[in-house]
Amino acid sequence: MDERVREHAEVLVDWSARVDPGDRVVVSVAEDAHDLGVAVAEALGERGAAVTTLYGSEEMTRAYLKAHEDAAGDARGDGFPDPAVDRALFEAADVYLRLGGGRNTAGTADVDGDTRRSYAKARQAVREARMATDWVSTVHPTRSLAQQAGMAYEEYRDFVYDAVLRDWEALAGEMAEMKRILDAGEEVRIHTEREDAPDTDLTMSIAGRTAVNSAASVAYDSHNLPSGEVFTAPYDAEGEIFFDVPMTIDSTRVRNVRLVFEEGEVVDFSAEAGEDALASVLETDPGARRLGELGIGMNRGIDRFTDSILFDEKMGDTVHLAVGRAYDACLPDGEPGNDSAVHVDMISDVSADSILTVDGEVVQRDGTFRWEDGFGN
Amino acid sequence: MDERVREHAEVLVDWSARVDPGDRVVVSVAEDAHDLGVAVAEALGERGAAVTTLYGSEEMTRAYLKAHEDAAGDARGDGFPDPAVDRALFEAADVYLRLGGGRNTAGTADVDGDTRRSYAKARQAVREARMATDWVSTVHPTRSLAQQAGMAYEEYRDFVYDAVLRDWEALAGEMAEMKRILDAGEEVRIHTEREDAPDTDLTMSIAGRTAVNSAASVAYDSHNLPSGEVFTAPYDAEGEIFFDVPMTIDSTRVRNVRLVFEEGEVVDFSAEAGEDALASVLETDPGARRLGELGIGMNRGIDRFTDSILFDEKMGDTVHLAVGRAYDACLPDGEPGNDSAVHVDMISDVSADSILTVDGEVVQRDGTFRWEDGFGN
């Protein structure tokens, strides 16, 4: 076994999930994540945890849902049965580790949208029980994910392990500095002037909001490995922003999005590809036209975009905004924040000709933070 | 997908497990049983059941147990933690379907025996909760199992589906006839005189005992697919018997076993290979030297021995005896029957030069039952 698989498992179990002896751990293993599953089982055996292993097979899920669709309308009714076993198992669990890495990222592509929604609705209580555990989601590098990223298999393995096998303690410290700045700040401005792209000049308020140090650990209320971003919940955006990082919305490739904000609301938008998908998001509800998140990517182990939000939004030299729902962790107690049925992230490359200021002070210039070497004035 | 995989899933779900709409079904999928898992998920979606999928990975189990061994003795103690999640999930389940079919039948070969026993002991309550469901165990034909059987992959697939895809209703009816004979009978005699093997002439009492029609369905209290045997709990064996079908006891190949019984107890034994393993079984406890089972194989879809007890003991033209523990289902209420920590099956080929009589009447001659064509006098 590649020694990095074992290191990945150790980061997941120790840094991310903080597994203690006696913990009841549920591990879900995707179709091609077996090697990581073996390494995680080994780490959990060493730590003295109890393990229950689920099989996260998208092909089995697809077969179940398609058969349900075909049988719907007959005597047994259209609904899904009570998922009492899944609920019971997550209610009894302390930790949930999801090991992604299937054989086909389009493995459930032909399942009807109504079926998905009805299935998700029937499983609401399962989801809540799962989210009440110390849960962490990661991926094992598979050929399917390499293909999605447009990379060779060995190349993609290097990419994933560079992102996952960080000095998380050090990165968490660096991100704590960014959190302090955002927590104390009142206004953020992103300003980019590049020859090859429309200008960005956007200001937004963050007064009273709390930033989250997303350091890939439940100890930081951060549930993805890799992570490496600091995010907060902005409001009252004014100005315009250009998102040049490719993304996929509801299976549609969307390119070069431009949003114009007035009094916190999107008043104009365009996209060079996928504009209809973007329009559909913005029309979901009133909250879909307002910001839910400002995130600052700080994981320098991620050096390229792979059309996977788990990696893209954490990349150093990027900032991202999401329209739609804000995270509760960023809001003062009792304040509702922006509400919406959607939360769609869009990413800007800020590696060149770009500044990020908080209350007029430059925090990042051309991708370099002010506490890093090479930050000039 | 081979259409037989789908037929296998349908037999399992409908004939064997009798799944109803709304049933909570736990499916355990071995490392190479994914195709059968997909077919079972499809069948369960059609039937309107709820599905929870476990991953039955022997390599993960081995990694967990070996890591536990290596860590034992440190501060956290030697014991296994409470498997509360597994217990909760089986307690919430109606049906458990185990889909065997790993990648290596020796996948846990280097796990220490004490570790296995300690793990099994810690999971006693899980096992009890699992046995309280309508459980069925089957196997998907894999290359690993083909290798164990000494067969080519395609050849082994044909072998498995011939055994599984029977007319179970018809076979259950035929087996009911055998059950009637055994339930009414008081004494069974097996008598074989072949030129190439030691003689068998064994009589045993079955008075007061109840035979089980093991028709591969929970409706018959039968939990393996394939099945196809009728068994009861004999006692007071007298005489000798020769078992010519190869078998494996605790990873040791055992060949050509001869047992001599007096007053129900083994008083002499021999084996051409593996005699020490046989001796070790017989010395376990007093019950290990007495009979726990007489079984009559009636599945004519199984046409050869494959060193897998799931198939071998069900084969038509065979009878088997087990030393050790008797099954409760064969005993009158309140009667203890033979008790032992072991239950080891041994099989005789009765296809030629052989008769099976019950109370002096010939029931099977040279492998042919008296209700079949070709049964002469």
UniProtKB/TrEMBL annotation, chains A, B:
GO BP field: proteolysis
SUPFAM superfamilies: Thermophilic metalloprotease-like (SSF144052)
Keywords of the record: Aminopeptidase, Hydrolase, Metal-binding, Metalloprotease, Protease
Cofactors (names): Zn(2+); Co(2+); Mg(2+)
Molecular functions per Gene Ontology: aminopeptidase activity; metal ion binding; metallopeptidase activity
Pfam families found in the cross-reference section: Peptidase_M29
InterPro entries per record: M29_Exopeptidase, M29_N-terminal, Peptidase_M29
Keyword Protease carried by entry: yes
Similarity comment: family membership: Belongs to the peptidase M29 family.
Protein name (database record): Aminopeptidase
Organism listed in the record: Halorubrum cibi
